[in-house]
Write a structure and sequence with these properties.
heterotrimer; A alpha/beta (394); B alpha/beta (828); C mainly alpha (294); B: 828 residues; alpha/beta; Rossmann fold; 3 domains; six-stranded mixed sheet; 34 helices; globular; C: 294 residues; mainly alpha; 11 helices; 1% strand; signal (chain A); Leu-bd (chain A); amino-acid transport (chain A); transport (chain A); Leu_Ile_Val-bd (chain A)
């Protein structure tokens, strides 16, 4: 009996192994683009958005004849499980084994930071379409192989302070940060941004990703006299902040990093969700450029679960990754080869590219590895289930 | 096998080292990671495999090692090497600190403490951001330099492989040496370990520290390999992975963690192309691997090997059967003296103010009815229970109660009612380890355990105790008698002044008991102060120099055997008046009902050796049949086998023409064959009436009416109907067990030792109730120690000895037959 | 301060009773079979996800969605026992600890790929408009008041079922003496499967109750399950009421720490307290000290 069942299980095991989609050797010579992001766990949705943005761009590029005069682009994805150690192993695999031409990656700042030294050492262009940690691109390496098409925490934090001062006349900021690396990084950034204006936070609190009750932290901020809340947190926890505010009956302006854009914020937060004003690099709502219309159409066409702008979440992931991929293709073409150093130079040679977020003009230079700046940030809020630029609903 | 493994291991190591310089950096990195995880696995194996402790907190030690290296090299400017050493030391110290609370608890509680530890470490790292860089961690960690043109991965991979090789070697030495044996002993039985002088706490703490240190060592190498440390890297999931490495490979085997690490390190890489589906497949494959090899791949390999090799295992190393001189020194020994010893359990005085001496070179027997407090006295004198009053000394030396292993080291050895051997150790190892008397020597040493002198002494002691079996067989496979002998040899190996034995004759045949008597005499003649708690009066009277009688915790009488035997108070309290006069066995007309229960050539046993060698019985409807025989004759095994609690190896059981064999217990009950088990086995937390109601689980129809019926039959139970059954006296529990059995509407009622441990008055009451059942034509099979009593009720009887039916006949014939006297009552 | 305290007490009791419910699940399987589903957090997630799917995605009425979801939870519990526990217990292996974790990983990822990666919220009219309590200027969602009541009511119901019903007392009997239970004709393997089903249902209930307050997604239960395990251990895994009380204490401690020290130290202090409590009472706060049998 026992022996038979073991044989059966062993057979099932072998069958399972056989079913794995072992990648067959590729006949043509496509150019491989590596992507390391979270594909499971809490950040999986953002990872999916990045994947879709990159894939959409690749589809377009391949439809137009690929790069380097006819070579196809192929996306090779790896799951980093939001764990820096796993991200580094995946990066090594993509660089040394898969021999990708460009590495995309870094959803979570710690993962990106862990990959940066490796990329610079291996002379591998590393394109960051999401993680906003300042030292990712300002990493001190020379030559620096890291580029970014995304917001940068330091700049977002300054923008948050300025936006609140201008629109709400804020004088006393209460900082409410998620208890993770992202929150910690922005805590530093906000304190610095306030300091630059000769201000200090009225209070500073952390909250956990699985918190259901943020009343204690909010009460302390209110007692400390905060007139505005600067919020950094993923969509779920940010929604808990709105729910707790509702319980307290505290009507306070909230300026936020882009966390709420990561899901159905109104569904999660309930009434009051629209009070949160958050930064975006792009919104698929409102008037769209021709590129915007094309992208929405392509996404709706390609993915069953996308029926309109509301389903493109998080929008920044799709938009950043889409533009980053197109810029990268231009860089590869400029380089004329898949050599890392040449591609790095290729990024610098891009002059104008009409992208989704904006029309890029000389997006990268030796001193500037970030293609987006504060002037590109859009302030948005949720109206029903749509992310709408602030002021647009009037 | 063993001799081959070192060159083979070296070859693998060299091959791996060569690979470091020829593979691309990704593979080198994976190789280094696997080696590091394997090193943690080896450390965890010291806990899991040797001491049987679990830890889900090893990621904490790993993190401590990594962060120590990161902080010292990046902030304090240390070079790698001292920082590495410091990391391992800090982790070891953390192991010690965690061991203090962790080792007070067991099983799931221990798992929880270690889980909590890993969370605390991770969150402490986050909160101490001045030192640790908080959530974003530390970069810029100094890397070791070995060769000028080696990359960091190559350097760390070489170091990791060498570290792994050294840890494997250390593990192998530890595992075969004295400490390893002591750790296994603690895992098998902490109680027994203490009684041979091993301090379980120290041993487990050392294991914890070694284990933590290895994790720290690996963590210290991880920091430069990764080039950074962040709190996310050391998540709880990583701890689970470490435990998996040991379990998938096989806990307790040297190479197991390496195999586990290779699989768990390489599998995710093979699955990497699955992208988002990687974790899904990883979970699924893991489940499959665990199902295929629940005791690890090494365990699976061993099973398969055993399947191939079955049958041609050489028998070797039997102890020479020379009953030579005792191989412990003939030094003068000290006796025990107890003065005013008292023990109270929750307000109940189990022992009050007991003063007595156990002189050297003599056998002192401690007797008394069940519950008199005899075992409590042994437990106090051997240090397991701290007495609530009085004191005791060995010679002139006052022994402080408390830690049993200290008392054992002073020279008080003991055995247990149910033998407590170190089951995973061999017979010889059991005795050899005890010979250390708690002094284990250096951590990787083996001299005190494996040297020829130690082994010869162990063999001689085993031979002295009359053990004639295989020396290398694991103790778990020993038959009952041999367990007793090995346990006594093990106790003697500590070269004790005093030897305490708790019911050494329980379960032994008459013949074996006689040999035991000789052995006890010989031990006393060698100068040891022997103290025996025993129920077997024949043995007591034969072997004792002094008999001490306890009754309800008080000293009733003490003196020479014949004095005590003649003491009227003793006769009244202990022997019971009417046990001397045999009950009349009535002549009854033979029952003529149809054959109801038939047992045909039933074979059953534990392990390889059958206990029942083809038992056949016939019971007619309405008949009461007694099964008689000494302890260990196989009566209880027979009852359990009939009830389906124990699988039969061959033979058949029929009830009213319906075959019952191979049915599970619950189906057999449904057929109407109901066992009232030995030792009552009531549900202690349930009320009396709920206990009875449970008897009607299968036939709840007229449950409440039948409940009333039971209260009519056993009026004592009605008074206690709402009490928790665990609070009832032994006799009441027995009545409850019978009532519960009757609720199942039995067609045949099996009663296993209903009178065991009951006072004579209660026995009378109980047997009156059984007599009533018999008159109501209930078919009953009765097993009871009290042969005369059983025969006075039964229609017919079987005499069983050594798992075979020796005689059968009417109760009257059997009562008069010589077989009964021989098998049951002994030659006396 | 008073407002904060009241708020902390209410949310502490709410969370605590959910920990307690899940911990009761650990208790039940441990008592009956000596094993637990180490990935109980996944069971909780399953309850919430199924309830969301039926009530929201498929638009079933709630009176239909809840029982069907719970029935499927029970089925999953039986599956866990059959696939990840029984094969190991039968061969005397402790690897069920690991295999239940593996099965949990599988379930989490299956849900992630089918239910979606986006956190969702189960709408409930009980968690939209806060009601004022005691004029403290603080609102509380009605659900927050209901959760501890439901939790305690379920624990009490469980107690009654165990004492008053045939199968309930069969489970109790099995937990106290396996062999004797078999002699009563109680089919042990069904009792154990039943215990796992019940334990998964309890976790599922906790998941559903918490779903309107928290967010529903595939890893919502991971940390929750671990905390519930520590609650079960803290209570002394052999005492049902102890487990429930430990759940309330744990929840209260957690919210009081957040209230007074902020959330950074919550894990350090709560898990530190667990270690201290177990060091002082090795069988849990309410577990009975096992008599050292020698």
């Amino acid at each position: 009996m026992l022996r038979i069942s073991r044989v059966l299980v062993a057979a099932a095991f072998t069958a399972l192994l056989a079913m794995l989609p072992w990648r067959a050797a590729v006949a043509a010579e496509p150019v491989k683009i590596g992507l390391i992001t979270a594909l499971s766990g809490q950040s999986a949705l953002a990872g999916q958005a990045i994947s879709r943005g990159v894939q959409l761009a690749i589809d377009e590029i391949n439809a137009n004849g690929g790069v380097l005069g006819g070579r196809e682009l192929v996306l090779v994805r790896r799951d980093d499980e939001s764990n820096p150690a796993k991200g580094v192993v995946a990066a090594r695999e993509l660089i040394h084994k898969e021999k990708v031409a460009v590495l995309f990656g870094g959803l979570d700042t710690p993962v990106a930071l862990a990959i940066v030294p490796l990329a610079n050492q291996a002379k591998m262009p590393f394109m960051d379409p999401w993680a906003a940690g300042t030292p990712i691109t300002k990493n001190g390496a020379d030559p620096n192989f890291v580029f970014r098409v995304s917001a940068m925490d330091e700049l977002v934090d300054v923008a948050m302070v300025e936006y609140a001062q201008k629109n709400f006349g804020s004088e006393k900021f209460g900082l409410l940060m998620i208890n993770n690396p992202w929150g910690e990084s922005n805590h530093k950034g906000l304190v610095a941004a306030l300091d630059a204006k000769g201000m200090k936070p009225a209070g500073s609190e952390k909250f956990d990703g699985d918190a259901i009750d943020v009343v204690p932290q909010l009460t302390r901020l209110r007692d400390a006299g905060a007139d505005t809340i600067a919020l950094v947190g993923n969509v779920g926890p940010s929604a808990q902040v709105v729910k707790s505010l509702r319980r307290m009956g505290w009507d306070v302006p909230i300026v936020s990093h882009w966390g709420p854009a990561g899901g159905r914020f109104t569904e999660l937060a309930g009434p009051g969700a629209e009070k949160v004003h958050f930064v975006q690099t792009y919104s698929f709502f409102g008037d769209q450029s021709p590129v915007g219309k094309k992208v929405i159409a392509a996404l709706t066409d390609k993915y069953d679960d996308i029926n309109g702008p509301a389903d493109i979440t998080p929008a920044v992931g799709v938009a950043n990754a889409y533009d980053a991929m197109h810029l990268t293709a231009l860089a590869i073409d400029n380089a004329g080869s898949t050599d890392g150093e040449a591609i790095r130079e290729g990024y610098f040679e891009i002059d104008t590219y009409p992208g989704l977020i904006k029309t890029y003009k000389d997006p990268f230079s030796k001193e500037q590895h970030d293609a987006l700046g504060p002037q590109d940030y859009v302030w948005a809020q949720f109206i029903d289930n749509r992310i709408v630029p602030v002021g647009l609903q009037d | 096998m063993k001799r081959l493994s070192i060159p083979a291991g070296l070859a693998v190591l060299v091959a791996a080292l060569v690979m470091v310089f020829f593979l691309n950096s990704y593979y080198v990195y994976v190789l280094a990671t696997v080696a590091l995880v394997a090193t943690v696995g080896v450390g965890l194996n010291v806990l899991l495999g040797l001491t049987g402790q679990i830890s889900f907190g090893h990621v904490g030690f790993y993190a401590i090692g990594a962060y120590t290296v990161a902080i010292l090299t990046s902030q304090a400017g240390w070079s790698f090497w001292p920082a590495w050493l410091a990391g391992a030391l800090v982790a070891t110290a953390a192991g010690l600190v965690l061991a203090l609370p962790a080792l007070r608890v067991k099983g799931p509680y221990l798992a929880m403490i270690t889980i909590a530890f890993s969370f605390i470490v991770q969150h402490a790292i986050i909160e101490m951001d001045g030192l640790t860089g908080g959530q974003n961690g530390i970069m810029g960690i100094a890397a070791p330099v070995l060769g000028a043109d080696w990359s960091i991965e190559q350097t760390v991979a070489v170091l990791a492989l060498l570290t792994l090789a050294v840890s494997l070697l250390a593990y192998a030495l530890l595992s075969r040496g004295t400490w390893g044996a002591a750790m296994r002993a603690v895992k098998d039985s902490e109680t027994a370990a203490e009684s041979v002088g091993l301090g379980p706490l120290v041993i487990k703490t050392v294991a914890f520290m070694v284990s933590a240190g290895l994790a720290g060592l690996a963590g210290g190498l991880f920091a430069p390999l990764a080039g950074f440390v962040t709190p996310d890297t050391f998540s709880f999931m990583q701890s689970i992975l470490f435990v998996l490495v040991v379990i998938v490979g096989g806990a307790g085997s040297v190479i197991g963690p390496v195999i586990g690490a290779v699989i768990l390190g390489v599998l995710p890489e093979l699955l990497a192309t699955l992208e988002a589906y990687r974790l899904l497949f990883f979970g699924g494959l893991l489940l499959v691997v665990l199902l295929v090899a629940p005791n690890g791949l090494i365990g699976l390999a061993k099973d398969l090997l055993a399947m191939v090799r079955r049958g041609d295992r050489p028998v070797r190393g039997a102890a020479p059967a020379t009953a030579g001189a005792p191989s412990f020194s003939n030094r003068p020994r000290r006796g025990l003296s107890l003065s005013g010893l008292s023990m109270t359990f929750g307000g109940v005085r189990a022992v009050s103010d007991l003063s007595m001496t156990v002189p050297p070179a003599a056998v002192t027997s401690l007797i008394g009815p069940n519950g008199a407090g005899k075992t409590t006295v042994l437990n106090m004198v051997s240090g397991f229970y701290p007495p609530t009053g009085g004191h005791f000394s060995l010679g002139d030396r006052r022994l402080s109660a408390g830690r049993a292993f200290r008392i054992a080291r002073h020279g008080v050895a003991r055995t247990y009612q149910t033998s407590q051997l170190f089951d995973t150790l061999s017979v010889a190892d059991n005795v050899a380890l005890a010979g250390c008397r708690g002094r284990l020597g250096n951590l990787l040493g083996a001299r005190r355990f494996l040297s020829t002198a130690v082994r010869q002494r162990a063999e001689a002691l085993l031979a002295f105790c009359g053990y004639q079996g295989d020396l290398d067989v694991p103790a778990s496979q020993l038959p009952h008698v041999d367990r007793r002998l090995v346990e006594i040899a093990r106790a003697l190996a500590t070269d004790p002044d005093a030897l305490l034995l708790d019911e050494p004759a329980a379960g032994l045949s008459r013949e074996d008991t006689d040999r035991l008597a000789g052995l006890l005499r010989a031990i006393a003649d060698a100068g040891v102060a022997v103290m025996v708690v025993e129920h077997d009066m024949e043995l007591v009277m034969k072997v004792s120099d002094q008999v001490v009688v306890l009754d309800t915790g008080r000293l009733l009488a003490a003196g020479k055997p014949e004095q005590v035997r003649a003491d009227p108070a003793v006769r009244r309290a202990y022997l019971g008046e009417d046990l001397d006069q045999a009950r009349p066995v009535a002549e009854r007309p033979p029952r003529t009902g149809p054959e109801w229960l038939g047992v045909n050539n039933l074979v059953a046993g534990y392990g390889a050796e059958p206990v029942l060698h083809g038992i056949s019985l016939k019971v007619r409807q309405g008949e009461m049949v007694a099964l008689l025989g000494a302890n260990g004759a196989g009566k209880s095994t027979l009852m359990r086998t009939l009830a389906g609690l124990h699988p039969a190896q061959a033979g058949g059981v029929h009830l009213d023409g319906q075959a019952l064999d191979k049915m599970p217990a619950e189906a057999i009950v449904r057929q109407g064959l109901v066992l009232v088990p030995e030792g009552r086995q009531v549900f202690p937390e349930l009320s009396v009436q709920d206990n009875i109601r449970l008897g009607a689980f299968l036939c709840p129809g007229d449950r409440e009416a039948r409940l009333e019926e039971m209260f009519e039959r056993f009026p004592r139970l009605r008074e206690r109907r709402h009490q928790r059954a665990g609070l009832l006296s032994g006799g009441e529990q027995q009545m409850l067990a019978v009532a519960r059995g009757l609720m199942s509407k039995p067609r045949v009622l099996l009663l296993d030792e209903p009178s065991l441990g009951l006072a004579p008055k209660i026995i009378d009451e109980l047997f009156a109730a059984l007599d009533q059942l018999r008159r109501e034509n209930m078919t009953i099979v009765l097993v009871d120690q009290m042969a005369a009593l059983a025969l006075s009720l039964a229609d017919r009887a079987y005499v069983i000895e050594g798992g075979r039916v020796m005689a059968e006949g009417s109760a009257r014939d059997i009562a008069a037959s010589p077989e009964l006297a021989d098998a049951y009552l002994g030659a006396g | 301060m008073d407002t904060q305290l009241v708020s902390a007490l209410i949310s502490g009791l709410g969370m605590g009773s959910m920990y307690g419910l899940m911990a009761l699940g650990f208790y039940i399987t441990f008592a009956v079979s000596g094993t637990v589903n180490f990935a109980q957090g996944s069971s909780m997630m399953l309850g919430a996800v199924l309830c969301y799917t039926f009530a929201q995605t498929l638009g079933w009425p709630i009176w239909l969605a809840v029982p069907v979801a719970l029935a499927l939870c029970a089925l999953y519990g039986v599956l866990v026992e059959r696939l990840a526990v029984r094969p190991f217990v039968r061969r005397g292996s402790d690897a069920w600890l690991m295999s239940t974790v593996a099965l949990g990983i599988v379930l989490d990822n299956v849900v992630m790929h089918t239910f979606g990666k986006e956190p969702r919220s189960l709408p409930s009219s009980l968690a939209v408009s806060p009601v004022e309590v005691g004029g403290l200027g603080l609102g509380v969602y009605p659900l927050q008041l209901i959760i501890p009541l439901v939790g305690l009511a379920l624990a009490a119901a469980l107690h009654l079922v165990a004492r008053r019903t045939r199968w309930g007392s069969a489970l109790l009997a099995t937990s106290q003496n396996r062999d004797a239970a078999r002699l009563m004709g109680i089919p042990i393997s069904r009792a154990v499967a039943g215990a796992f089903a019940l334990s998964t249902v309890l976790a599922g209930v906790a998941g559903m109750l918490i779903a309107p307050l928290a967010n529903v997604n595939s890893d919502m239960g991971t940390l929750f399950g671990l905390k519930a395990f520590s609650v079960a251990i803290l209570g002394g895994i052999t005492s049902a009421w102890g487990v429930m009380i430990a759940g309330l204490l744990f929840g209260l401690a957690e919210s009081l720490i957040i209230m007074s020290l902020g959330s950074g130290y919550t894990h350090i202090i709560t898990f530190g307290l667990v270690i201290v409590a177990l060091a002082l009472r090795p069988n849990g706060l309410f577990g009975r000290a096992e008599v050292k049998k020698v």
